[in-house]
Amino acid sequence: MITPAFELTQDPDFLTVKIRVPHARASEFDIYFEGEDFKFYAKPYFLRQLTLPGRIVEDGREKASYNTDEGTFTIRLPKENPGQYFEGLDMLTSLLAPKKSRSAKPLVEEMAASAELSEDNEEEFDWEVEQIPYEESTPPLQHPYGFGNLRSGVFQRLQDELSDVIDIKDPDQTPAEERRRKRLAAEAAKFEPDHYLADFFEDEAIKHLLKYKPWWIDAHKKMTALQGESHQEHDCPAFVVFSEEEREQMRKFTNKSYLLDKRSRHHVYLGLIDILLAYCYEICVNEGDKNVESSWNIRKLSATLCWLESFSSIHDVLVSFGRRVLCYPLYRHFGLVTRAFNDTVMILQLGKAAVLKCLLDIHKIFMESDPAYILNDLFITDYCIWIQKVKSKKLAALCESLQKTTLSKSHMGLELEELEAAAVLVQEEEKALKAAGTVSKQQLLCSESETSDSEESSSTSSSETEGSDSDEQESSTSEDGEINSFQGTLQEERTAPLIDCNGLRQGTNTSAMEVGDGKSKVSLQSTTPPGKLVEELEMQIHSAMRLSEQPEGLATAGCISQEQEENPVPEPDRFSEDAAGKGNFLEVSPKPNPFLFLCSTNEDED
């Protein structure tokens, strides 16, 4: 016989069972329901027994239909108590369990042990670790691990695959306390401050990842809105929908019962939080997509899976997860720790249906990873079966305790705040040095610009000066040519007086006298000694020169003779001779109202 695929839904008055039986003979089928039992048969499909979470009744309102295109039976069964909510309709493995095996109690037991091991009889669960006085005892040959610490000796048979699955060596011979010490030492050695600070300052990619919204965020919003309207606290199956593949996974699980004492249940609940935190991180950083690193991320971030850790408090779980996020994966940012924490709270608030959906996804990821399938056998498969039987109030209490737990960077034990403060200080110093360098560079550029402008100005001035000097040289050369011509005439007539002023004392000389305005100079050769020449010149100037004002109509003024006043002639050049060649004019200065020397003809005329 084949167990058919099925699903259950409900409304306030009816329970609906939808059974998929392709290629079945629709004319031959049997349905049985009474109280909490439901059975279905249509050859070759047989749904042996569903144990329902509530009672149904046969009162004439029941109805069944068959869709030939889809090959499905849809059966509507009235509830015995209209308005009652049937909890756990998505927990298919639990529903398929035989009614007699739903209890985890052994067939023969002592009453005291039964009261201690029964989880259903507990009114309130204490999430703090139980204080037990230390007692020396002979340690067991093998230390347990796995779901509820129910396994041991597994890795003795799997030494070849041990290093690819967990980080601890020889877990069977390593007690829980030593595992914890080794884990903390490995995390401290693995922590890289440079990697952490790089993600801390350059967090654009991480900010983008934090914007991703997985399916449980929308489901949580809808559930919160519904609870605000109806003021009810229960699972909302409509918001947590299982796919056909997930339903098939649940049908393949073998139903089990777990006999756990209080301490073991405590470890199981805390391990569940640890596994969900790692799963939430994986979903966030990969934005819901699966890749070859998904299996590694989940098992590496969960100390429960990687180090076979048994936690004693919720705070220890959060600290372990936070440290591992900052030591191992690609993105090492405390914001991802906080995001995973908030997502885990949402999943627990959605109820065990949401938790089961996450566990089924982890189970699938590990099944597709060659070495990680061992973790399904040790943990995940048992969690998928166990969570279907957990009371919702237990998860609600666990979620409430998780929400009250606080986590900060100082709890990590990695000196994160000191690292960040030092990095910020270094960054500010670099900015200050960079700003100072920029100012110095600007000042240097300004100085170079000023120097360049000064050089250009000097070059321009030098060019102008050179041009002026060139002009002056040309002018001086021209003037010197005229003067030299004049001096040649004077030297040829060696008996000619230097200055002749109407019969004043005359003399010959070869000494030089310079007359000029600074731009042009006139050199007169004389053989008279310099001192005597000066005295003679002084005497001749005082006795022979006279100063006349500039007449109107003349461009320049100077000393002229009486004959020239009566017969004016055009203004001469600096050195010129009259028509008779009897006189020479010497222009001392080209400035307005210059002085002119009037020299009459000398003894040659006489």
Can you offer a commentary on this structure?
The structure is a single chain. The chain is built from 19 helices and ten strands. It has 606 residues and is of the alpha+beta class. Among the domains are: 5-89, Immunoglobulin-like; 147-229 and 238-417, no CATH class. The strands form four sheets. A four-stranded antiparallel sheet has the order 1-2-6-5. Residues 101-116, 131-139, 231-237, 475-479, 482-527, 546-563 and 571-606 have low confidence and may be disordered. Residues 444-530, 549-594 are annotated as: Disordered.
Secondary-structure topology with pairs:
Elements (H helix, E strand, L loop, with lengths): L4 E6 L3 E7 L9 E13 L2 E12 L6 E5 L4 E7 L13 H5 L14 H7 L41 H7 L10 H15 L2 H9 L2 H7 L4 H16 L13 H9 L9 H24 L8 H8 L1 H4 L7 H12 L8 H17 L1 H16 L5 H15 L4 H13 L11 H77 L17 E7 L4 E6 L3 H15 L17 H5 L17 E4 L8 E4 L7
Antiparallel strand pairs: 1-2, 2-6, 3-4, 5-6, 7-8, 9-10
Keywords: Cytoplasm, Nucleus
Organism: Eulacestoma nigropectus
Protein name: Protein SHQ1 homolog
